[in-house]
Amino acid sequence: MSAQVQSDVSLKPFNTFGIEVKAQHFAQAHSDDEVRELLAHAAARQWPVLVIGGGSNLLLTADIQALVLRMASRGIRVVADDGQQVIVEAEAGEPWHPFVQWTLDHGMAGLENLSLIPGTVGAAPMQNIGAYGVEIKDVFVGLTALDRQTGEVCEFDLQACGFAYRDSVFKRSPGRWLILRVRFALSRVTQLHLDYGPVRQRLSEQGIDQPSAQDVSAAICSIRREKLPDPAELGNAGSFFKNPVVPAVLAEHIRLTHPALVGYPQADGQVKLAAGWLIEQAGWKGYRDGDAGVHQKQALVLVNYGQASGGQLHGLAQKIQRDILERFGVALEMEPNLY
Ligand SMILES: Cc1cc2nc3c(=O)[nH]c(=O)nc-3n(C[C@H](O)[C@H](O)[C@H](O)COP(=O)(O)OP(=O)(O)OC[C@H]3O[C@@H](n4cnc5c(N)ncnc54)[C@H](O)[C@@H]3O)c2cc1C
Known about the structure:
By secondary structure, the chain is an alpha+beta fold. It has three domains: about 5-70, Uridine Diphospho-n-acetylenolpyruvylglucosamine Reductase, domain 2 (2-Layer Sandwich), CATH 3.30.43; about 75-225, Uridine Diphospho-n-acetylenolpyruvylglucosamine Reductase, domain 3 (2-Layer Sandwich), CATH 3.30.465; about 235-339, Uridine Diphospho-n-acetylenolpyruvylglucosamine Reductase, domain 1. The chain is built from nine helices and 20 strands.
């Protein structure tokens, strides 16, 4: 077998929360053949398998009694280019942000608003990653995935992925699909999305009134660096809770006592609330219990100040969920995947 399987491997370097747990078995797959070899190796020994990418959306609460298979396949290629639209395919193990930079460096627009999101290309469809008014579904063409139940390689188009807010068919069937590579339709004719958050304002502060996709990416990187802690310095998994979508009557009810409520009306008549705003109103911003805490500048981000366990961070998340339910009648759902 070409891939190497190690035992009792610390996962601390492989999750952005920096949680110290061990994988009973650990291996990296650099190709489809290595993926198949490793799955067969695990099946022959009746080991469960947990596939990971960059570990930036994981909350690990115990040692993983399984083969942790980290996707490390690399490769980016142009599949079609008619001068206006370019179809680009990237392997699952490609790190996301360098991939976005590669597309921008090659004159392709579409992914600029998703700059600086940690993780890998293969994990991006799992929760239909999104930021600054764009989700991958907006530029997604298709992906190739291995069905771990049947061993078949399957093609998914946009519709088959069932993308929704931080959700997809892959997330709804945990452990079934192993995403091998993903294709995006990017544009040589720039159509920018500048109306979300402070993007336009940041560009105009820089004196840029006719921005390129590269300018938008740079502005978003600078905003994100100010707002979000860098996992290399302070362990975190980005937004810890999804923004809850609630019935309009509940939003109106909360507004009676909290007139400044942040809410975005949805097409179906419901209202999307800002989870971070609710958590901040409830007084959790900057809270710390041992090494588990809520970030001082961003109430939506839970942080590990050093030695917090996954259980401690999960316990803190549950306390916040209970408090928000009692105060506002709103159920918060966790965004990271819990293992
Ligand atoms: C500082 C910070 C900021 C963030 N900002 C954003 C943001 O703006 N928007 C956003 O949407 N997310 C954000 N995230 C969350 C995270 O970066 C994304 O969800 C990212 O796509 C996770 O990629 P990963 O490779 O690290 O996945 P992992 O954390 O390794 O895995 C996540 C899930 O996907 C599964 N998985 C991983 N790879 C594969 C594969 N090839 N096939 C099948 N299953 C797989 C895993 O089993 C797990 O269930 C942020 C995280 C951090 C730390």
